[in-house]
UniProtKB/TrEMBL annotation:
GO molecular function: sulfotransferase activity
Species this chain originates from: OM182 bacterium
Protein name: Sulfotransferase domain-containing protein
Domain named Sulfotransferase: residues: 8-235
Family matches, as InterPro entries: P-loop_NTPase, Sulfotransferase_dom
């Protein structure tokens, strides 16, 4: 059996950079997906890989045929993998599937592959939640005829949808379930903030966990940051359009190209650009009440991570 590593990079934790720049191109990785511009379902490497992974990752509420999965692994997948390669898959959506489904995935993966690893990057909720909100604005820029949604309203909607504030950024559940199922040595937890402040140290840590050449990882990732945030001028323009009746009417009848041009929005291969001189990346100022609310929801889980994984969360101002 060959070890399989699953990366469930949560949204807004540098996942796309690892997927597109590192995992997809490192010679020591046999990458099953998520593959940029793949024509196959779930952006898998091939149709048969998708069929193989579906009962292990995405339809865990249904029974699966262990013998059939083992046969595909032995007869089809492993012969494609070079002796010095490790098998890896990365899908950020798996960090939002819920604890019960995730646990079934861990059990099935271990059942089929024998040894499995889980790689996770987490991020301080105080900065991640505003980033998720800005991603929401970016992703919905074609639907700006609707009322402009503030951060507070968006957060309230997410709480109602997911069943609570903590559920929006829950990471402890996945980490704890993985440790209990795979063993602590097979679970690697890394911090997005280190990726921002000390990228080489962060990338070396991931390389060590995956047992691949760190110099290649660093070279592949150099200068590659995808999905940068919207700029201040763009968010201001979005809000202005949506608070004006005429603006909403004009927006509704405009083409997609004209809509993008009207707010200075240019999306080049996932990179956000602005045509406004000295424009700054958009940011959200959290009120003291909101900071307290998020901190209270995150404290217990963060303390658990410190006590059980010795993560230096205090260095990056995680609520403790």
């Amino acid at each position: 059996m060959s070890c399989f590593t699953l990366h469930i990079g949560f949204s807004k934790t540098g996942t796309t950079t690892l997927q597109r720049s590192v995992f997809q191109h490192h010679p020591q990785i046999y990458y099953l997906g998520k593959i940029y511009k793949s024509q196959h379902a779930r952006q898998c490497l091939s149709a048969d890989i998708y069929d193989f992974l579906t009962p292990l990752l995405w339809t865990t509420n249904e029974p699966y045929n262990r013998e059939l999965s083992n046969k595909f692994l032995k007869d089809k997948l492993l012969p494609r993998v070079e002796p010095d390669q490790m098998i890896l898959g990365s899908w950020e959506g798996l960090g939002q599937q819920g604890g019960e489904s995730f646990l079934k995935s861990m059990i099935r993966l271990k059942d089929v592959f024998g040894q499995c690893k889980l790689l996770i990057t987490i991020r301080n909720p105080i900065t991640r939640l505003p980033s998720l909100y800005l991603q929401h604005l970016r992703g919905n820029q074609k639907q700006l005829a609707d009322k402009f949604v503030t951060f507070e309203k968006w957060l309230s909607n997410q709480e109602a949808k997911l069943g609570g504030l903590k559920q929006i950024f829950d990471y402890r559940t996945y980490i704890e379930l993985a440790i209990n199922t795979l063993g602590s040595k097979n679970v690697g937890v890394f911090l997005y903030e280190q990726f921002d402040s000390e990228p080489e140290k962060y990338l070396c840590g991931i390389s060590h966990f995956l047992d691949i050449d760190s110099s290649v990882v660093i070279k592949l990732a150099e200068g590659q940051r995808h999905h940068t945030r919207l700029f201040t001028s763009q968010v201001n323009k979005m809000e202005a359009i949506n608070t004006s009746l005429i603006g909403r009417l004009l927006w509704r009848i405009s083409s997609s190209t004209k809509k993008k041009r009207s707010i200075g929005f240019s999306d080049n291969e996932g990179i956000i650009e602005t045509k406004v001189d000295h424009d700054l990346p958009a940011s959200i100022d959290l009120s003291s009440e909101m900071l307290q609310l998020i901190s209270k929801a995150a404290q217990d889980d963060n303390r658990w991570l410190v006590e059980n994984l010795s993560l230096d969360l205090a260095e990056y101002d995680y609520p403790l």
